[in-house]
Amino acid sequence: MSGLGERAVTGRPINAEEMIAEARKAFFVMFGFLALVWLLQLANWADHYGLSRAYGVVSGDVGRLPDILVAPFLHWSWAHIEGNSGPLFVFGFLAAYRGVARFAGLSLLVAVTSGLTVWFLERGGVDTVGASGLIFGYFGYVVVRGLFDRHLIDTLIGIVMAASFAYTLTLTVPGTPGVSWLGHLGGLVGGLVGAWIFRDRRPRAATVSEASAATMPGAPGPRADLHKELGDLGLL
Known about the structure:
Keywords: Hydrolase, Membrane, Protease, Transmembrane, Transmembrane helix
CATH class of the largest domain: Mainly Alpha
Number of domains: 2
Protein name: Rhomboid family intramembrane serine protease
Helix content: 55-70%
Shape: globular
Largest sheet: 2 strands, antiparallel
CATH architecture of the largest domain: Up-down Bundle
CATH topology of the largest domain: Rhomboid-like fold
Main location: membrane
Subcellular location: Membrane
GO molecular function, one term: peptidase activity
């Protein structure tokens, strides 16, 4: 799987042009994602929210188990979708800009962990829909991804996001009426796990080669790679 920030077998760092191309792709992916969610909301509203009633996650109902993959696209009101749209785009873009393929895998993982948490643990008869499980998954992924990838820029982004949106974690504990804290918690766990599963894996041979080269005077090493990355981003 090749994505922004990953290295090819040759060990060549991703350059600035490729970075911009991946960011552009991530932007259009999230724009399309949001457009789909809003089109479904329009159809859902016209049907008096029949889609939410038919495809929401209902705890313990085996027949509704496949709906864990559909429920994130549906909402209960215009206020519901409006509240989710901004965070979904921001965190989704930050999760996707290092590779759309891994973002698709992350989205599937988070939808499953969030949906299963609701399906197993929510009280009976509650019909749960909404993209907030995905939002919390993307948030968790963005916050810790840089630590697993040992990537400076992503680590800094994670610190900023954690400091700016730490208050959202209050929605992963019981207490807010009408909010599926279980879905939020399941999504957050899925995002944290996804940061490890989809971490950047460099070939072992390349890693050993770099370690050996680092001992040679004047040879490129981890510090040179860091300087090159910062230079590509215009930070040096």
